[in-house]
Amino acid sequence: MHNSDIAKIFNDIALYLEIEKIPFKPRAYEKAAQTIDDLQEELQDIYTQGKRAALESIPGIGKGLAEKIEELLKTGQLIYYEELQKKMPVNIHELATIEGLGPQHIKILYEKLGVKNLRDLEKAIAAKKISRLPGFGEQSEKNLKQGIEFVKKSHGRFLLGYAMATISSIEQRLKNLAHVQRLTIAGSVRRKKETIGDVDIIAVAKKPKTIMDSFVHMPEVIHVYAHGETKSMIKLKNGLDVDLRVIPEKSYGAALNYFTGSKAHNIALREKAMKKELKLNEYGLFRGKKYIAGRTEEELYTALGMQYIEPEMRENWGEIELALQNKLPKLVPYNALRGDLQVQTDWTDGTASIEAMAKAAVKQGLEYIAITDHTKRLTMTRGLDEKRIQKQWKEIDRVNKRLKGATTVLKGTECDILKDGSLDLPDAILRQLDVVGISVHSHFHLPKSTQTKRIIQAMTHPSVHILFHPTGRLLHRREAYEVDMEAIINAAKKYHVILEINASPERLDLKDEYIRKAMEANIMFSIDSDAHSPTHFTNLAYGIAQARRGWATQKNIINCLSLTELLLELKKKQ
Ligand code: DGT
Ligand code: CA
Ligand code: CA
Ligand code: ZN
Hints:
- The protein is an alpha/beta fold.
- It has 4 domains: about 5-155, Orthogonal Bundle (DNA polymerase, domain 1), CATH 1.10.150; about 160-245, 2-Layer Sandwich (Beta Polymerase, domain 2), CATH 3.30.460.10; about 260-325, Beta Polymerase, domain 3; about 340-574, TIM Barrel (Alpha-Beta Barrel).
- The protein is built from 24 helices and 17 strands.
- The termini are far apart.
- The relative contact order is 0.07.
- Bound molecules: 2'-deoxyguanosine-5'-triphosphate, calcium ion (CA) (2 copies) and zinc ion (ZN).
- Zinc ion binds near residues 414, 439, 441, 468 and 469.
């Protein structure tokens, strides 16, 4: 039993307990699930080494939860969970992933219509049974229908951030094999697309057969589609398909270029080659039959008369034309971030204390972080009101003293934007904060013009620094709310509001095309982890990747500034 299995069971229990309207406990299970998901070590190993005491020493895991984990590890089941399932035998996890379907709704659907899973729900919608139920209306029937379509549409693709641990582990193992000279993950993974269809690996190896044999026999493999000398294709237990190709050294750059894509970039590049009376394919660049280049990608782009194009830009969005004119933007480097301006703690829905988050930030090499817990409207997270946030400031002061400058903790907020565009904290509080971020967490279905007006209204507030996760999308779970991004970008310009590039793998909000639009307007961004636990700071890399996909440069990223420079910028607001 893996950590992810145990985390899923705890999440399910949290949902069941919410259905029964039991206070506090659901949050405890949810937080425990999050903690377990974030653990670097397998619970099985922790337990084998230190028994139940070791489990209890994990933050957020008390005696009761440790006993349950022990039962799961020992017997592979949990009687408590099974009894909850018996009472209400529904696929609670599947139903809860549908946006707009809360625990109470799941209960009503089960009790009144016998809905147990997604398919039942679709049938009930098709039979127009939903809108007549108490607590549902025609609008919610429409929303549910959209929610289901969204979940189904995303099926089959993987979030880059969730798949990356597996991909990197496979990459490392293959690279370490004897006879493997070069190996790169190509395809959409190399272009850092937010979701990936499959994984494309290319390699140079002295004995291709050896690497192919190791590849198809990896413990993660559940199915082998093809096992050849130069090409093999497998499916992993987690559902991900992986292709491996072994390439002659001479063609490595050309193959890497071809299999990195995108297809649109490849086709456009090939056309440019043809104009020069050259032929480009995955084996190299040729004049007639004569090989000109192809060992490295740099060599290829040079031979085509253009600058090297970073993988994140290869979408045929105009990058080839710029490269030909030597005018490519210099993308923000992966090591350029000096701080993080959105961090949650256990004052609301994070799993760790302010101090624990700060220490993790030190490890990540961050010069500063802003603590931005939720505000009171988000009651389920115990959002902060005027009193508690002032109490939090005192704790931040104490933590800063103890840190002795190892990093600096700034006072911030993720302040809710209310329905009318006003903010969830009084002006007097907002004015005293170092970092004021604002977010939409409710009323996702307002008409586009109303939603846009509401957000812009909030942006006009003189204390506001950053619009957090500007479109509210959750990859594979929730479509962005309808909003006029051009108007938001214009407002960001007019009112000097920074737009966030949220680095959480399931948000990556803004998306690449909006980042490009905002870059054209010379807007400032902040790349934030939105960390809810100490391990989440590593997600910042996905935010930088997203920024690079949107052609963002370092001078447009506010948290590439040093602390002193940053504070100067932020203080321009009152
Ligand atoms: P994915 O897997 O859907 O996230 O996206 P990619 O870009 O990894 O696409 P994939 O795995 O189908 O193919 C890998 C690369 O191979 C792709 O980025 C470009 C290249 N490629 C695939 N099919 C074609 C094609 O028909 N023409 C050209 N020019 N290149 C192709
Ligand atoms: Ca692919
Ligand atoms: Ca592929
Ligand atoms: Zn938020």
